[in-house]
Specification:
single chain; 263 residues; alpha+beta; Uridine Diphospho-n-acetylenolpyruvylglucosamine Reductase, domain 3; Enolase-like, domain 1; five-stranded antiparallel beta sheet; four-stranded antiparallel beta sheet; 14 strands; 25% strand; globular
Length: 263
């Protein structure tokens, strides 16, 4: 590690002011940023710790959506009655993140702000067409994730909550790395009031929507329809865990499993 300033604001307003003044980074659960700092992959000059801010916590049903505070832990989302009742797929996704320690420390806001290419939450945010609210604006899911570890967030923006529209049906399936539980490929499917959305994580440098699967499932929301779609390996990740061709085949298979889990 190296020297840096540490700030622990007592209120949301104070946190925003500290972030602007220090030019540092927000730390929530610390499951991503602290690890990156230990490896010197990230070297912020200051940390603004928002873990104690009650204003950024809480999960509640709001008409046809579920609003989840940015500081809500993965375990809280997984066990929430509001989430389980409205969108069981999101609760199941949260319950499959990492291990018990990660789920009890990591947060929704921290996960999507970090935008790890193999993280689970980005698939749910994009697949459900959620809206990310910050201290300055609201950002549609389609505009939020911009690249590997990159988002539309400004340097002085703090995520406050995420609003997930309640789908008619939704499901998530992933092929998890046996050690980290990150997704080698993960597919979130949702049948919404505005059509079918399919989001894929782990297969490219950034989460993305699979239009071929969306078109097929719009015609027939069945596992067979998903499995029949042939995904091109072009542009897919190629690493020691899986080839582009293997990931391409996984996308269709996992989409079919996600549809099955949606009921």
């Amino acid at each position: 590690m190296y020297a840096f300033e540490y700030h622990r604001p007592k209120s949301y307003g104070e946190a925003c002011a500290m972030l602007t003044k220090s030019g540092g980074k927000v730390v929530a659960g610390g499951q991503s940023l602290i690890g990156a700092m230990k490896l010197r992959l990230a070297q912020p000059g200051a940390l603004v710790d928002i873990s104690g801010l009650a204003e950024l916590k809480g999960i509640k049903r709001e008409d046809d959506a579920v609003a989840i505070g940015a500081m809500s832990r993965h375990a809280e989302v997984a066990s929430s009655a509001a989430v389980k009742g409205a969108m069981p797929a999101l609760a199941a996704l949260a319950g499959g993140i990492g291990d018990r320690q990660v789920r009890n420390a990591g947060t929704l806001g921290g996960s999507i702000a970090n935008n790890d290419p193999a993280a689970d939450y980005p698939a749910a945010v994009l697949g459900l067409g959620a809206t990310v609210t910050t201290n300055k604006r609201s950002i549609a899911a389609d505009a939020f994730f911009t690249g590997m570890y990159e988002t539309a967030l400004g340097a002085d923006e703090i995520i406050t909550s995420v609003s997930f529209p309640v789908p008619r049906k939704a499901g998530y399936a992933k092929f998890a790395h046996p050690a980290s539980r990150f997704a080698l490929v993960g597919v979130f499917v949702a049948q919404t009031a505005n059509g079918v959305r399919v989001a894929v994580t782990g297969a490219r440098p950034c989460v993305f929507r699979a239009k071929a699967l969306e078109d097929a499932l719009a015609k027939s929301f069945t596992a067979d329809a998903a499995k029949a779609v042939k995904i091109s390996p072009d542009g897919l990740n190629n690493d020691l865990h899986a080839s582009p061709e293997y990931r391409a085949s996984l996308i269709s298979v996992l989409a079919a499993r996600a549809v099955q889990s949606a009921g």
